[in-house]
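call fold(seq) -> tokens
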Amino acid sequence: MKKIVFILLFLFAFDSHAQKSMFAKDPIINLENFDKQRVHWGYFLGFNSLDFKFDYLSVTEDIDVSPTTGFNVGLVGNLRLQEYINLRFEPGLYYTQRNLTYPEIEDPFDALREVKSTYIMFPLLVKFSSKRVGNVRPYLVGGASATLNLSSNERASDDNFNNRFRMKTWTYDYQVGFGVDFYFEYFKFSPSIRGVFGLSDELIRDNTADSPWTGNIDSMKTRGILINFTFH
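ret:
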């Protein structure tokens, strides 16, 4: 997927027609009335790097979190409120993995927990666009999201003593970011980068109160970065 995205960007950057329509002094205006639609749809592909933010009940050595690069795919629904403000609904599938290392646990097997998560996010966002200049239009975006974790293990009776890390099925977060709309002859391409900040504790504690994996954790919240490439 990374290779596909970079190939697309390479083609856009070096295609002579794209250069003329994007960056010429007097560019050809593409999709001039596209943003005047009341409602339009699209889809996105992208990558994520999600982390955990831990708060502890007492002072201790921090749990080491090693995020990996995951992927995103989803749909975009856009409702025009006025010339510079749009309401967006972007349901999407986000796959990621975070490796947790507990420094106070001596056994290497018990000290490592590979937390694989398959999220379905339901963000409702407000998009604030600048004035369009030629075929380029920067924007800011922000809003809140409800997230369904398909890999939560919330209903499992086993816990970390049986090598099962458990998380809540539903959590909530807010998202803020920025991007740029590029208007091509037949479609609009919008790369964006967005920060995700968890609002609710995701962790389900082990059945034993003094568990070395969960006993000293006050809260565990997702945070991270989303990079999306949207096509309308």
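The radius of gyration is 21 Å.
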